[in-house]
């Protein structure tokens, strides 16, 4: 059972959540309490970081010190709107340079 020292409140629904790091290095919010219906396996590594992985057909069971968790996005009653992505990701809006005029 995980400790409560890393529990925070969701900005939208004010439920208790924990932030974890996925296998790909991204942050993911989990419900704070273990959930037998969840599809994630979470554990705290040797540095104290909460890590999470998806329970897949290749690895369907919990291993070692993992506990079953539910992603908070699946249960949040008041999710924050996601920012709109631009039509050209990775590009910044810029001012196009105009023609130079030299006054003499």
Q: Strand order of the main beta sheet, please?
A: 1-2-3
The backbone outline, from C-alpha atoms, is elongated
DSSP strand count: 6
Question: What is the typical, i.e. mean, pLDDT?
Answer: 85
Outline the low-pLDDT stretches: none
Helical run tally: 0
SSE series? EEEEEE
> Sheet bearing the most strands, described?
3 strands, antiparallel
SS-based class: mainly beta
Radius of gyration: 21 Å
N-C termini distance? 78 Å
Helix content: under 10%
Strand content: 25-35%
Which key terms come to mind for this protein?
three-stranded antiparallel β-sheet; 104 residues; mainly beta
Q: Could you walk me through the main structural features you see in this protein, from its secondary elements to its overall organization?
A:
With 104 residues, the protein is mainly beta. The chain has a 3-stranded antiparallel beta sheet, with no helix packed on it. Strands 5-4-6 form a 3-stranded antiparallel beta sheet, with no helix packed on it. The relative contact order is 0.21. Helix content is 0%, strand content 25%. It has strands spanning 8-9, 16-21, 27-31, 40-44, 50-54, 67-69. It has no helices and 6 strands. The radius of gyration is 21 Å and the shape is elongated. The N and C termini lie far apart (78 Å).
